[in-house]
Every structure is written in C-alpha cells, then in structure tokens.
Design brief:
The chain has 183 residues and is of the alpha+beta class. The chain has a single domain, classed as Endonuclease III, domain 1. The protein is 50% helix and 8% strand. The protein is built from 6 helices and 4 strands; from the N terminus they run H-H-E-E-E-H-H-E-H-H. Strands 1-2-3-4 form a 4-stranded mixed beta sheet. A hairpin with a 2-residue loop joins strand 1 and strand 2. The chain is elongated and about 90 Å long.
C-alpha cells in the first residue's frame, strides 16, 4: 500500500516536471518570436505605417513595447500583428503546430490557436499550406476513404481465344526514318 502511494507520488512529480518543461519551452519560444517580430517590424514599411496609424486609432489598436496589437472582439483579448515576412510566419506556425506542446493537431486546431494570439493577412492559407507540407501530418493522417473490397478472381477460360486482353501503350516516341522497315 505504501509502495503504491510512493509510486503514484513519483508519477505525479514526473508529470509536473514535464508540464513545467512545456511551460518554460513555450515561454522561451514565444519570447524569441516576439524578438523576431520587433526586429522585422522595422524592415516592413506596411507595419511601420500601421504602427503610426495605431497611435491614432486607440479604439482598434494598442501599441506596447514597439509592437502593435489588434483589439479582439472578446473583452481584453489582444492579437499581436505580425509583419509581412514569410520566414517569421513560418516560424510562428511551426511553433503552434510542431512543438511538443502543440502536438500536430491539424489545420483547424492550429488555426484556432493562432487566431487567439496573432493576426496577419492570409493566415488561413498560410496554415493550410504549412500543414499540407508537414511530413508528420501526412504520414499519420487518417484515411477517410472507404475500405477497398476483396479482389475477385477472373473466370478461367474453357477454350482458346475465348478471352482476349489488349494493352494500349501510348505516348511512345516517334521512330527514326531508318527504323521504319523494321516496324
């Protein structure tokens, strides 16, 4: 009885350590993403223009730590506006989809997670393209096609020339003129 209790406590301790690791990993990568957004925001002229407009449109945007946030429809929700940089968007999608705490949950779940925290134009198509090319998802994707039936043997012919099979081969290259007599 005491041994079972100790085993259960050790299991809970290991589980808590794993959860702490996931939280630390997610906070480190999120900080890295924010640093990349800050760095790339200065290179994107559209983001710079939005940064200037956001100061005037306080009902729609908030500027914090040199980053622009779009106020969400939910009370208090702020969506981080991502500059137009393909590598940065790829990094954000990869963190939301490939990391251990994300778990390759598919297009819908990845998109839902991203829409809670970030915003950029064509996010839906970027996520769809990323997941379409994700090797892990393609290898482990469930096949929704119905199962194939069993093969049925062909009846055995009872006399010669009763059944005739023809294979049509097309798309062959044209023969040279000096080979024409052999055809």
């Amino acid at each position: 009885m005491l041994k079972d209790l100790e085993t259960e406590q050790m299991h809970c301790l290991e589980l808590n350590r794993a959860r702490l690791f996931v939280v630390l990993l997610s906070s480190l990568t999120t900080d890295l993403v924010k640093q990349n957004i800050e760095r790339l925001a200065h290179e994107d002229p559209d983001y710079q223009a939005l940064f200037e407009r956001a100061k005037e449109m306080e009902s729609k945007y908030i500027v914090r730590e040199r980053l622009v946030y779009l106020l969400g429809q939910d009370e208090g929700r702020m969506l981080l506006v991502v500059p137009n940089n393909a590598d940065l968007k790829h990094q954000i999608i990869m963190e939301a989809h490939n990391t251990p705490y994300a778990g390759h949950k598919g297009q819908t779940a990845t998109l839902a997670f991203l829409k809670k925290h970030f915003t950029w134009s064509k996010m839906d198509s970027d996520v769809r393209d990323f997941i379409k090319h994700c090797d892990v998802c393609q290898k482990n994707k469930r096949d929704y096609a119905p199962e194939h039936g069993l093969l049925q043997p062909l009846p055995t012919p009872t006399q010669p020339w009763e059944v005739l099979g023809i294979d049509f081969v097309t798309g062959l290259p044209k023969p040279r003129q000096d080979m024409m007599p052999f055809l």
